[in-house]
Amino acid sequence: MTAPDARIVLIVEDQLLLAMTVRDALEDHGYRVLELAIRHQEALDTVAETRPDLALVNIELADGDDGSVLAGELTAMGIPVVFISGQASRIEASRDAAIASMPKPYDAADMVGAVDYVFRHLAGDESRPGPRGLQMFSPPAAAA
């Protein structure tokens, strides 16, 4: 059950089964997950209705949309972004648009750990390590 004051997460991922698995795992851990988006404009429409505390954004989205462009827009709005992609070179080229990256393949438990760690990091708590694969960018591109 999601608490009324739960942190809000936006998932922008064109692999719908993966996105639904991550959504379910995050909700099981008390996060509120907004409607899944597979395109740039869908994500912006969702953000216009409800501002997330964190966005998980794939680099390649449906219909050729570029997740790094979306990440830049979300970061400019003050929404921290974690790239969720296996495209290391594109992530590296766009790292100013995100606070971290979690490379594919990952499982839902790793993603929950990454989200937990990013929220702790944003609050200044780095007392426990993040999950395998999570790469934090320094300095962070966005502030909470």
Explain how this protein is built.
α1 packs across α5. The two termini are 25 Å apart. It is built from five helices and six strands, in the order βαβαβαβαβαβ. It has 144 residues and is an alpha/beta fold. It has one domain (8-136): Rossmann fold (3-Layer(aba) Sandwich), CATH 3.40.50.2300. Helices cover 38% and strands 14% of the residues. The radius of gyration is 13 Å and the shape is globular. β1 (8-12), α1 and β2 form a beta-alpha-beta unit. The chain has a six-stranded mixed beta sheet with strand order 2-1-3-4-5-6, sandwiched between helices.
The gist of it:
With about 140 residues, this protein is of the alpha/beta class. The chain is built from five helices and six strands; from the N terminus they run E-H-E-H-E-H-E-H-E-H-E. About 40% of the residues lie in helices and about 15% in strands.
Question: Can you tag this structure with a few keywords?
Answer:
5 helices; alpha/beta; 14% strand; Rossmann fold; six-stranded mixed beta sheet; 144 residues
Could you describe the largest sheet, including whether it forms a barrel?
A: 6 strands, mixed
Ends: how far apart?
A: 25 Å
Would you identify the CATH H-level superfamily? Response regulator
**What's the average pLDDT?**
89
